[in-house]
Amino acid sequence: MLKERIEQYFQQYPQLRVLFFFDEEKEHEEEYLAMDLEGIRKVTFDNRNFYLKVMLHGEWSAERVFLYFQQPMPSTQDEYRHFPLLDLLVANKVLYLDNVADFMDQFQLAPNQRSLAKRYIKELTRTPIQKVVAPLLTRTRFEESELVIGLISAFLRFTKIERWETILAKILCLGLPGQEENRDYFFRKIDANILYPFLVQPIRDYFNTTLEELNQQTLIELQNRLKYNLITYTLDEKPDDPYKNLKIQDGVVLSMLSNLSESALNNPKLADQFLQLLESNDSQIKEETLLQIYGSESEFGYLTTFMKWKILSSGIREIDFKPQTALQVFERVSMFRENTVQLSNTVRFLIYLANINSQLNEISGYIYDSPDEYIEKYAQDFYRIDQNYRKAIDFYRSVDVSELPDFIQLDPLKDLLEDRYESFLEKLNREWLKCFSEQGFSYANLATPKQYDFIKREIVPYELKIVVIISDALRYESAMSLLSELHGDSKNEAVIRHQLASIPSTTQFGMANLLTTKTINLKDAELFIDDVSTEGLANRSKILKKHVQDAQVFAYAEIEGNSQQANRDIFKSSLVYIYHDCIDAVGDKRPSERNSFKAVADGIAELAAMVKKLHSSYNVSRVIITADHGFIYNDRTIKEADKEPLNEEGAILTHNRYAIIKNDRKQDLGYKIPLKQTNRIDSDLFVLVPKSVNRYKKQGVGHQFVHGGASLQELIVPVIESTRKRTEVIKKVKPVLISKNLRVVSNILRIQILQDQRVSRNEKEREILVGLYRDLELVSNQVTIQMSSTSELPSERSYGCELMLRGDIGNISMLKLKIYDKDDELNPLIIQEVINNTLIESDF
């Protein structure tokens, strides 16, 4: 519009040489800089008065000049007298953009709309404002109630006309530090256009208060009302509450205030500022005071980050002796959204620690009747403690403790975790080895499948194509996590079994066991099968071909690097072995052993992706994932005093968890086991292992990540068998409503839904729709929840859900909560009556 007006002026006044334009608010700067004026020189006034006069009277004297000022036009006699270009100003013209007639003509407005256009013409002719209110500049929509909302939206720097709840949320955010320029601009515009009367009613509707004017102080008052009522709207007022005069009793107003908050927090352009407003430390509403008065156990409507930390601290006090109580606290905090990364990771750490404590507190002892019973107990139950420990350490590592509040100290909790886990490892494995020693460490007498029978049990009986992935150090608990990942595929039918690795539980012995049904020979610390060394892919290929003629052997990296066609050719073979080395490659090196659990997570992701690809891209119907051995990992550094001495004199092989020795070797500590008892090896040698999970002193090796010994964690290795169905498995997990006595408060219903089972081979994920209904009519928002958790922990299968009742349904006393499968919206999975406690004003 600016360009057209400039050209119009010079056409209308042919003798005009200089056209002045004063853009005090810089509202037209963008358009000015972008426009190209043919035959008219654009000049920006930059206070070089003498230079400008010389150029205008000299070099530019024959040109038409548009002179742009970013300052107010002189309006008083004194301002005119001091204006540096007064002679030129008097001799030429000033461009005004308040031509109502032009505006009316441009947008074809009706004559009766002239007074409205004239009232706001100064704003309506400004390009940024005009862009926002453009939808209203028609004869049918140009009316004051809508136009005012559009102008206020523009003054708040919105790019489109917003709803009142978004406008009010943005106004509140003007009180934040760093918003001074935007706040002053907004206040100035509201005052200049006399728009505050239009804000009075929306403020009353949403905050139940009437303000005489809008300024910094009244902004603070509105912020206080917002924060206090969002936090306490679910609670009954207490006499000693110092902020009770801010309490909004009107249920309709509370509902609108909640809608305002939800709208702001869901607005990508406003959410960060609004959250900063609620979290501000400068607020006059002190969260700690509210926690003291109402108690940290109260069901607050909203929790600030500070309140969440404080409530977590109350759970931390119970985490050792009352872990289930602590767990309820942690899960309640996790239900609220807008958690920071630090808080979320801390909560996850605490949940896993509480679960470990709960599991350990339920264990009455570690004495069982037979070695097989120990193995079965571990495979069914105790592995979860190792799994939870791994996940607790992962989340602990992800927390930056320097960013935590002073009253949250994770180091003592980490020490508690280490103390309890170390005690579990030591006691369990001491009793296990004691029991096994009483049986003479005889693998032959065990009912548990043995690793050295793998070929006979898993390969020989089958005629289908088989791919075997051997993941170095994939221990049983990690394989259970992998199994959960595989179950996330709706067509996958994976099952897990276990087998017992040999003692010593090393890569050398484990890999050899997985190659043959024959006797293995030990020569000069190296293993041989039919005089072929078991080391290296080429040798392993030779050995396997004696069982399956077209067997092939590859490293995982080679398969990953191949073209799809090359892999298709490979997987035409009847048997393919893939060697995957992600976990042991990191853990078994002293410099990197502290990254062992990260390597586990990486390994699980790689294996899950590989299995899916084998089934879907290469038409492999049967995939087996197993391991050569497991491992023990302690995140706390093993002290030198806790390591056992090892006499290496005359030993054939030694490491931090075992030694292979001759029979005449004197042994004071640990167990001396005939090698032939735990292996299919013809040898008179013995393997020496500690009596529990102690490490031998060994220079140059790590001691936190270890294997080679006889602990359950090292010996019990997984056998995952993955197959694929042609059609999706139809049985799905089910939703269970945890929340009881459902009541809508201030138009909001918060519920918690539990996924009854983890996603597994037999039960697949389900997408559900949740909403409030009056008969068949949906009267709230509808929430979609993807129930796809593969976790064994109920806390990780719990979903929080917030439903907001439609404003026009407030007077309905009874509603129904309905939960549907997304694929079947005719037959609800759950129907539950809900009482509507929202208070309704008679004049609503």
Helix residue percentage: 40-55%
Total DSSP helices? 32
- CATH arch. level architecture of the largest domain: 3-Layer(aba) Sandwich
**What is the tally of beta strands?**
28
Q: What strand line-up does the widest sheet have?
A: 6-19-12-5-11-10
Rg (CA only): 38 Å
| Low-pLDDT windows of residues | 839-844
Tell me about the largest β-sheet. 6 strands, mixed
Given helix and strand content, the structural type is alpha/beta
Write down the CATH class of the largest domain. Alpha Beta
The total domain count is 4
Q: Approximately how much beta-strand content do the residues carry?
A: 15-25%
CATH topology-level name of the largest domain:
Alkaline Phosphatase, subunit A
Mean pLDDT: 91
What global shape is seen?
elongated
| Ends apart, CA distance between termini | 45 Å
